[in-house]
Design brief:
single chain, Beta-Lactamase, Alpha-Beta Plaits, 3 domains, five-stranded mixed beta sheet, 14 helices, binds zinc ion
């Protein structure tokens, strides 16, 4: 029995009776240093690796591999320890200690293998970078679509008329339609033709076309002439896209896009354009509905002139404007002479025809800035902002002459001759409130009637 240490700790640090490893290398300096240096480098690297792993764990707390990285760090440190012992053992034969460190290394490596085994499926299922990239671009695309759609919605929401909405669409056309030239075409109220309302990027397209000439309108879905069948309304025979604008099941128009230069849209772009077209169509349909309602509430049904309520509101507005600007308003009150007699002799229908004809003539003869209104029965009021007494009287007299030339034929019978009497009052010269102004014009009209009709009288 060789004499030796008996306690376990003494045994670990015991080198009694053992020979340093250097003896195996016969103390050949090249061999000894080759082993010593390479083990030193390995030990150095194995010390740095866990530090780097700790940095990864601290920076990316979201990674699901923390345990694996932790085990791997211990395993690497233990490996470093065995290499350090290799160097020590060249000169000092602490073989028990080296053995103990090897046991720790073995345990760490087995644990790492076990953890790694569990993680493998998770690591494999982790999305590949190219897949992540694709998902990322999809997400970016969605964000772009939502942002653009919101932007269009916001601008269209703020529009008060269809004209404003057309402006918004043509203004944003470059962004929406990705630089393709195009035209916004809207179907008219009698639903037989569509008219170009706005063009962008110098597109070539006729001003109007028949609805049946567009295949997108016929089928109610987007149309590209890929089979060579080009819509009849298109003069350019290159690649194109007709996007119908359909809201509540009814088409309000189309957007024609010329893709000759920039090429056809991708599937993704096209799908997004279809969504945008639906969004725009809804806004356009709502605006049109609002305009119809507004028109109905401000217009006289029979003559389509403004109604009395609208005239009264306009007069109040014009008076405050004229007061502010020190300007004038000419107010004309007109009456068709002997209208009751026409009605009695020819029936109410004939009366309606005459009212419509005179109203049409009024719309044509007065300025767009004048408010021409049917005041009631066969009485009309015209507000002429900024018109002097002389200008208003001249205009009224010319209109009186025009009425006399009017020939209204109904059922082969000529109704007439027609004439009108006109009374004129001026703000602020004759009256300063709207009621007084209308009353003054009415007084002047009464005088014109009394003096024999078919004449223009000014308030005195
Ligand atoms: Zn078409």
């Amino acid at each position: 029995m060789p004499h030796g240490p008996h306690g376990p700790l003494e045994r670990v640090f015991s080198i009694e009776g053992l020979m340093p490893h250097g003896h195996c290398y016969l103390w050949d300096p090249w061999l000894v240093w080759m082993h010593a240096l390479s083990d030193a480098f390995i030990f150095g690297a194995y010390t740095v690796i866990p530090i780097l792993l700790v940095q990864i764990v601290r920076a990316r707390k979201d990674l699901p591999f923390h345990w694996m990285l932790f085990c791997f760090g211990i395993f690497i440190i233990a490996c470093g320890g065995t290499h350090l012992m290799e160097i020590v053992n060249l000169w000092y034969p602490y073989y028990w200690l080296a053995g103990m460190i090897k046991i720790i290394t073995a345990l760490a490596s087995v644990s790492t293998a076990a953890v790694l085994y569990k993680i493998v499926p998770l690591a494999i299922s982790y999305p590949r970078p190219d897949k992540l990239q694709a998902l990322n671009s999809q997400l970016e695309r969605k964000m772009y679509e939502i942002t653009l759609s919101n932007k269009i919605g916001e601008h269209l929401q703020a529009c008060l008329s269809s004209e404003e909405a057309f402006d918004v669409i043509s203004h944003m056309a470059g962004e929406i339609f990705l630089g393709r030239p195009g035209a916004l075409c809207i179907i008219n109220s009698s639903r037989d033709i569509a008219a170009v309302q706005r063009r962008w990027e110098g597109v070539q397209h006729d001003d109007t076309f028949l609805l049946e000439d567009c295949r997108a309108l016929r089928h109610g879905r987007p149309y590209s002439p890929d089979s060579g069948l080009v819509c009849k309304h298109i003069t350019n025979k290159g690649a194109s896209l007709c996007l119908p604008l359909v809201a509540h099941g009814e088409a309000v128009g189309i957007i024609y896009l010329d893709c000759t230069q920039q090429g056809v849209y991708s599937e993704i772009e096209r799908a997004f354009l279809i969504l945008l077209a639906e969004q725009m169509a809804l806004f356009l349909a709502n605006l049109k509905m609002r305009e119809i309602l507004r028109r109905q509430s401000t217009r006289d049904q029979l003559t389509d002139l403004y109604n009395r309520r609208y005239m009264e509101e306009s007069l109040a507005r014009e008076i405050s404007r004229a007061t502010r600007n020190n300007s004038v308003i000419a107010t004309l009150m007109l009456d068709i002479d002997h209208f009751k007699k026409f009605n009695d002799e020819n029936g109410h229908d004939a009366g309606d025809v005459i009212l419509r004809q005179v109203s049409k003539l009024m719309s044509e003869n007065f300025r767009a800035s004048d408010v021409v209104c049917r005041y009631g029965g066969e009485e009309f009021v015209v507000l002429m902002p900024d018109a002097t007494l002389e200008a208003a009287a001249r205009k009224a007299d010319r209109f009186r002459e025009e009425v006399k030339k009017l020939s209204v034929v109904r059922n082969g019978v000529t109704l007439g001759p027609l004439s009108v009497s006109v009374g004129i009052a001026i703000f602020p010269e004759h009256a300063r409130t709207s009621e007084a102004l209308i009353r003054s014009a009415d007084n002047a009209l009464y005088r014109a009637k009394r003096d024999g009709r078919d004449r223009v009288c000014v308030f005195e």
